[in-house]
Amino acid sequence: MFTLFDEDLDGMDIVEGALALNHAINSDTDVVWVKAELANLLSEIELALVNESDEKQKFDSFVRYFYYDLGFKGDSEAYFSSENVFIDTVLKRRKGIPVSLGALFLYFAGKLGFPVEGITFPTQFLVKLAWPDEKVQYINPYNGEYVAKKILTAWLIGQEGPLAKLKPEHLKTADHPTIIGRWLAVTKSALLREERYTLALRCTDLALTFVPDDPYEIRDRGFIYQQLDCHQIAKSDYQFFIDQCPEDPAAELLKSQLRALDSNVITIH
User: Where is the Protein SirB1 N-terminal domain (predicted)?
Assistant: First the structure.
């Protein structure tokens, strides 16, 4: 079982934390290969930029190298695939989603000394570039393009409605546990879509080590147990959510699920 806590994740690069998390979810994750590949790619990038003396030009060259020479890009054809969240498959395929590509981008950029940080923007993961005494810039790690605040506002309106406003907290640097938590949620969603319930259950168990008794996480765990035919445990989790969140619209739906489960044969695994 995964035993790292927030303070452990804070001391790691985001990629290192994600790799530990991925291995905890899927023991087939080749940790040794991932670490070797990260080291090889870093050496390749450093060699490609060795003649760059101006830091800003060097950063622009790094962005081009990451997205064009190395070929990292967003997976528009299978965006929700779990292959886009597990760090080993992202490295092998050179495809991912904002949080996985952003973590790799931050890893290499950080090793090169660039002033970059991660942001868990409401619509997607972003990279913040903050040169000393200059206006902060924002990069979409899905494609490496700079994103203006007016575009970020449009994204926010698209998700939250026409009254949404861009606020300073939306652009606040996220700590590593927050980023890893979001990554974990995305991983669980991908695995649920693929009906890989055993791995999804590990995601839920991991999430509950960070936020014990989270009713929404326990509700999701109940759904997973139901799919695994562990009806008694599913009922317990559903009842916990109903008791903790009686006003949530999902509570009424879960009451119906409980009645349906009561009418079925109970199997305990």
Answer: 34-184
* Tally of CA atoms within 13 A in the half-sphere of 155 that contains its CB: 16
For 198: left if phi > 0, alpha if psi spans -120 to 50, otherwise beta; the answer is: alpha
Question: 192-235, pLDDT tens digit by residue?
Answer: 999 999 999 999 999 998 888 999 999 999 999 999 999 999 99
Burial class (CB in 10 A: 0-12, 13-18, 19+), 108: buried
- CB contact at 8 A, 84 and 75: yes
Buried b (16+ CB within 10 A) or exposed e, 75-106: beeeeebbbbbbbbbbbebebbbbbbbbbbbb
Rounded to 5 degrees, φ, ψ at 131 are -70, 145
Distance CA 98, CA 141 (A): 5
State how far the Cα of 43 lies from the Cα of 48, in Å rounded to an integer.
9
Residue 176 has pLDDT above 90, yes or no: no
* 165 to 120, 159, 161, 189, 209: CA distances (angstroms): 16, 11, 9, 27, 34
How many other β-carbons are positioned within 10 Å of the β-carbon of residue 27?
A: 9
**Reported pTM:** 0.90
